């Protein structure tokens, strides 16, 4: 961390700052220029509150050199994290092919889709029971009943299941769920993240619509600093000035998050684009960029889906896509596993 | 709502759609062009799921004409809503001057600030007990203990208090709080919004960093459709490509939200800019644009504040600003009340 | 185009509007609802000025159904445009592998790089002579002298060349250039676009940092409506709230522009990311999404490049990437040509 | 400028870098930490190409401390620049009230509007002759003929005139124009900016839709470094995710640009919002935030304006607004002049 002092700083205040930093076990290197003095802080600066230092009278600016996240930081954990979801591995060359409907609707629907996506090559089943909807007048999901149906489909197919939690009061219902998803709108629901830090289950953490890579990693850090290191990061589109697609899928998140962190990176082309005709193309693009997994909406009858029909693939379209993804990964991903 | 059909739509499917719309008490007007057919839907289209219609094979596009919010919509409630907060009125010409520290730190601090802002012209006291922080390593607020100190300051000064809730499990602690604040990161925490719909207290709902006016009004609608119509909207800066200021304060939100809705609109220049030297200027700009209130961070010792010191005014600076706001409102706001 | 009228529109004004539309050979379909009247306009609405209609007293809103571009619109030109650049075809399954240095520096440099990228599989050579730089104090390119060196490299290798024009006064110098590039900052330099409409050379039109797909296509329309239909669209990153990478590469532009238009779509991963280590990954992602070409910065000595060294690949890194792109295209692009 | 070196940098390369910096008259302060070495560069770093340094093998990151603009920088020119436009002063407490139609249409129209806005308190007349339009099929302005009509209105009313240039080839036509406007889309048309650096006329430089404050100041620097120091900065709305208004008016640009630069700051509420009903409110907000001027579209018959009618005020509405702006400025701007 670099502290840029204002010209001619008050010496007593400067001494106070240096003493305070030393108490936090930070070594201070002073660099006296003609018109400005810089302090170089060396040590574990992640514990320092940057805003506190910025607020001091003698300080003009503070610039971070080190990242403020530790548990999620590749610098301290050079090897890829591999997460084991009841036998399905994700990360370090292992690929998560997560598929299923936006909303769980009926037992027949979820079981039919689950069987179809398993046959086509999915190794994890997704399905929404608690649905975050912009409008209070839209369908809010089958909630507890939906979770039961999802677990029926798990039993039927053997696929581990991924589903979204919307509030920490729902946590008890997730006992038999394999992966807990945190939605984009809850990425900075810090009370929920803290609670998930004490759960022994993988968490699929979606990036918020306008959140930076660093904020995503800080939210992962909330979970990891509580003791739960099984976090998968998920890019699902960011908000921009363009309105033709629902969001812009930031495929660059894959190499960037791989560089900054050791956690697996999953891409959600369905929510990012909001249109099924774009999903296969963007799925291939994400896989070619080295994503550790895809989460794709598949519905047996998209035109009558209870929500987000326009972005769902048919089982047939998914069955055409999945083997292409596999073949492409063999070609471009160095450590791709079967 | 306008439904644009694809060329040569299947007649049986079109009949099905029209029948389904009639069941929802929607009247359908068909407009046959040379190359396209349009359906104009008349009735309460807020109950229709636009995505569902878009997913149909015969539909090319759907465009909303009516807003999807009702309770918050000025079309159905032409008069300004005036909210009474234990005697302090907000909206319809009545101005909320909300001030106080970012974080409640000690009894002395909160009482000293409360007395100072009251003397300077504040009519509501703000102070944070539960603090949403990007980093798990930053100060998280005094939480329950902080609420107690805030209520001490309320007793001491008589100022009604505004403070943020971060999770619905905290609701019981807010019994003596006058206004419950929902932070920007929780604007679409729908479970929390639903719970607040059943509370008999005003809610200060902050706009998310990258949320549209319509999404903000839909979140207000979550609260109002539950029965609690005392919602104040708050603009606190939106995220953009510019990094010099923390966010961009969208003062245009004042006239737009006033046009679309009857709810009061409060502006938070402290969080929007993140720098105290900009706060008075932006506060004056917001007041000149007709805001129904300001929420401003004031700290007796900003350089040693436990959080967000850089954006806090001193009590002296606030005392200089408050009368200017009042004088300016008399000049430009037609129905400005004392 | 749909015109939404205000409630109870003045009949005389409405008649005027309808007459005026008929003069433009637009057929008007009126749809009378309980509370609103809609006009459906059928015909060539691209000639109507939407703002003019919006300004009328009786009009509440106007919504476009048809796209405002014609020459660039796939609806009217279903087949992919294939552009022939002195024997190198681009589009319709033919791939442009454009490589070369950011700036032309010396004869030795441009010839060495040109030979290296040709050997590695490039079929077009890029190099900047006129350089748009944010700062007036940065290197502005060798300008006319740079163009001469680039043409030397063309003679030496036989590769057609692509280089940027910054002002229409430079046009005479581009006589022997094969493809004229319009940079992102000039995407809406309409006087330049009009001039390029009268040139018989392919134009590589880069999307502005915050321009929509439709605006890009309207800028293509400026060139095409002048008579020059040889336009290649180029996505080079859009500006967002994220600052870790220079821009966000919008790979979704590939399928969207392919759907809306018949023009080839080229991706520039070098400028989009600004960091060479991300370039190969993003290039593969773009190729997997079906791009018709890549434009990649390659420099024989990136650490001493006169500009944009950090985003340039070495010839060795490019030679590793190019065959991977080719193999991947064979796997996922249906009509990929050799 | 701070250079962050990679761990264990090669000593020979480091010596080379330090020597090279010394040749540019930069003093280097080295700060050796446990795990990293920082170089603090002191001197005129605006001449250094930050990208060049970043590209070096031994460098991890480079952070600017000093702004890269000099002529536009308030640090080197503490006093407000006051620009004299044929007797009308702008800046340093002097206010520019610029009004007139979007497009010049006829002699009657421009003279009628010019007289009306002068009577209402405008001291500068605006009017567009060369019109940048997104579509090649929209009205492109009367061009040379429009300039002639504008100069007629100048003769008639004595108001100095402001009008937009779109290409440097048009410069000869601007001889009798008082202020040359550079539009948002041309903010980084560097060849045009360079040409304007050699003109002895004030330039009104509009901020691009997605350009930062620093980029705007660097574009001003292009003009000023050529010798023309009479630059007025203009904020006219930035692009965001919100689509209800055309753009977001960033009123915060006023205090920020005043802090960073000594140049006058003008606000354009007409283009920013695109809707006339918002213009007076936003004009008042901008004036309260300390803007040095407003540029407002006024048309005698907005419903029949040839372009941008929806955002034009009537002369009556402008006559109501102008005195409010004046009264408000007296109240809140310390050095407001009559």
Give the number of DSSP strands of chain A.
14
SSE class of chain A? alpha/beta
What is the CA-atom radius of gyration of chain A, in angstroms?
A: 23 Å
Report helical residue fraction of chain A: 25-40%
The best one-word shape of chain A is elongated
Total count of helical runs of at least 4 residues of chain A? 10
Q: Name the CATH architecture of the largest domain in chain A.
A: Alpha-Beta Barrel
Strand count, sense and barrel status of the largest sheet of chain A are: 8 strands, parallel, barrel
CATH topology of the largest domain in chain A: TIM Barrel
Tally of discrete structural domains of chain A: 2
Q: What gap, in angstroms, lies between the N and C termini of chain A?
A: 43 Å
Mean pLDDT over all positions of chain A: 92
Describe the protein in words.
4 copies of one chain form a homotetramer. Chain A has 338 residues and is α/β, with parallel strands linked by helices. Chain A contains 10 helices and 14 strands. Chain A has 2 domains: 2-63, Alpha-Beta Plaits, CATH 3.30.70; 74-332, TIM Barrel (Alpha-Beta Barrel). The first copy, chain A, has an 8-stranded parallel β-barrel, surrounded by 5 helices. In chain A, strands 2-3-1-4 form a 4-stranded antiparallel β-sheet. In chain A, strand 12 (231-235), helix 7 (253-260) and strand 13 (265-267) form a beta-alpha-beta unit. The longest helix of chain A is centred in the last third of the chain and has 18 residues, at 315-332. Chain A starts with a strand and ends in a 6-residue tail after the last helix. The model of chain A has no long low-confidence stretch (mean pLDDT 92). Chains in contact: A-B, A-C, A-D, B-C, B-D, C-D. The interface between B and D is large, with 38 and 38 residues.
């Amino acid at each position: 961390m670099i502290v840029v002092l204002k010209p001619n700083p008050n010496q007593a205040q400067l001494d106070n700052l240096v003493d305070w930093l030393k108490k936090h076990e930070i070594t201070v290197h002073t660099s006296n220029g003609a018109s400005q003095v810089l302090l170089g802080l060396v040590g574990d600066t992640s514990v320092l509150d940057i805003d506190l230092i910025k607020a001091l009278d003698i300080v003009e600016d503070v610039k971070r050199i080190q990242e403020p996240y530790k548990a999620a930081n590749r610098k301290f954990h050079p090897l890829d994290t591999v997460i084991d979801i009841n036998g399905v591995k994700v990360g370090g060359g292992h690929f998560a092919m997560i598929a299923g409907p936006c909303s769980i609707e009926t037992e027949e629907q979820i079981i039919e889709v689950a069987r179809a996506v398993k046959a086509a090559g999915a190794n994890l089943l997704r399905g929404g029971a608690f649905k975050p909807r912009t409008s209070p007048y839209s369908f809010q999901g089958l909630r507890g009943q939906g979770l039961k149906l999802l677990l029926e489909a798990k039993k039927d197919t053997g696929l581990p299941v991924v589903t979204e939690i919307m509030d920490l009061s729902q946590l008890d219902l997730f006992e038999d769920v394999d992966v807990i998803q945190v939605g984009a709108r809850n990425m900075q629901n810090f009370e929920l993240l803290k609670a998930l830090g004490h759960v022994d289950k993988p968490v699929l953490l979606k990036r918020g619509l306008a959140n930076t890579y660093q904020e995503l990693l800080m939210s992962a850090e909330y979970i990891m600093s509580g003791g739960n290191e099984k976090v998968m990061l998920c890019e699902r589109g960011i908000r921009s000035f363009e309105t033709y697609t629902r969001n812009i899928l930031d495929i660059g998140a894959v190499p960037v998050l791989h560089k900054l962190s050791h956690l697996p990176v999953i891409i959600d082309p369905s929510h990012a684009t909001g249109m099924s005709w774009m999903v296969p193309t963007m799925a291939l693009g994400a896989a070619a960029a080295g994503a550790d997994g895809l989460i794709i909406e598949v519905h047996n009858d998209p035109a009558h889906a209870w929500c987000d029909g326009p972005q769902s693939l048919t089982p047939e379209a998914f069955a055409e896509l999945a083997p292409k993804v596999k073949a492409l990964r063999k070609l471009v991903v160095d450590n791709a596993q079967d």
